[in-house]
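LOG
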Amino acid sequence: MTEPTDHEPTKEAAQDAVAGPATANGEAAVPPEQTAEPDPFVVLEKLKQENSELKDKLLRTLAEMENLRRRTEREVADAKTYGVTSFARDMLVFADNLRRAVENVPADVRARAEPALATFLEGIELTERDFTSRLEKYGVRKLEPQGARFDPNLHEALFEVPDEKVASGTVVQVVEAGYAIGDRVLRPAKVGVSRGGPKPAA
């Protein structure tokens, strides 16, 4: 019987090679290729859930961006329309003074006024009309409430005028002209309102 050489595996080594490496408790270890793989249905459900969450986030982000775009457009439009509000309100005093300058000249004085004075008064009236038209270029328009139904959003009532022939709540006198810019009131018209007449039509 020959002794095993260093180059020949012993019987025990051959058995160990077939059995594979042992674990700490002496059991044979399971090769990596034999470990359990994840259930494809579970993986698919996870992917579907992740996809749904990402889609929801995307839709929310798109909606927020659209709202931001609309809000920005509205703010830009408002800035264009109402950016001159403070300036225009200050300029209304200038328009009022022009109108008062003309109205304070009695009719009989104008009728017999010398050519120089008549020309001067016409120049003031022309300046007022030109100034009003320039305000209109920037969206400022003069309110014309005479004969209209009183509207607290557009008019400021200073007094009441008894008149049984005119429907109650009708503007019968304009003390100070009102102005609007865009769809906002720049300055309400100061008016006198009728009372004692028939009820206004609905």
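LOG (cont.) second protein
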Amino acid sequence: MQIGLSSLAAHLKNSQSGPRSLYTLHGDEALLQLEGADSIRAAARAAGYTERSSFTVQGAHFDWAEVLNAGQSMGLFGDKQIIEIRIPTGKPGKEGSVALQRIAELSRDNDAVLTLVSLPRLDKATQSSAWFAALDSFGVTIKIDPVERGALPQWIAQKLNLQNQRMQAGAEGQHALQFFADRVEGNLLAAHQEVQKLALLYPEGELSLTQIESAVMNVARYDVFKLSDAVLAGKADRTQRMLDGLQAEGEAAVLVHWALAEDIRAMKRVVDSMSAGRPLAMALRENRVWGAKEKQFERIMPNVQSSTINKLLQAAHQVDGVVKGLKHADWPSEPWQALHRLAQMVVRVAS
């Protein structure tokens, strides 16, 4: 059974016979995974699970027999126990695959043991494996999705509400939430710590923009592959902020150029397909433009001329030389200045 993390609290509260005997968490957001695991542990303790064993699967020689034995043995006084299995790589191996299927089957008839399996983000092939299918079939599977930038202000507001704090009403409060989100983007654990810091600095109640600006540190972490989201959304300020952040973090200019150039080349392929008579939907599908990027292209491409894309493609070619140390008369010699200019060219087309 699959549920979202947002549904976990209600699931645990509404389980009249206590928590289920098998839970699987998978996703890369460490804070959210920790919060999910803590909720399950708390429900288990309330239901009388007083002992706890933890195993981390590392290397090909991990002893799965020890895990199986732990699940089949009772505590000293017959106490219920929690068994946690962490698989940081998401790859349990052949022996682990067999063991996990056995653990899943045993969980069906063993309410004295609650098994909690923690995994990173899994690709489609892994989610189709026999061992993961067994975990999902016999237990509860919770996928941990990241908090995207657009949802981050609301997430911050919810966390503040839990400690009886809130932003001012109206435009100034929304501006404060956006400022907060800009300072912590891409670093959810640090965002959580900044929220907790506000509880130490200020009393319960309303928080002002001035208080947020003076208290919240700039702990944002930027992902070069998320840069595309800002550029294709036509967000000039966010694009500039992300580029500044990537440069400060020491990201390779050549990788940033590759990300920008990939979007430009994709635009070129889609324009050429449309020029050959294919509908936009078919052009996107044929050129493997999917997901969130597909929605951005659906908005952008109907208004883009082939000549405009050709200019962007030529600009990307010239900046490729700049980031590799070559000079070009029409471009700044400093790679990051050239990248800023190229990115803003794409932003103008996208907006």
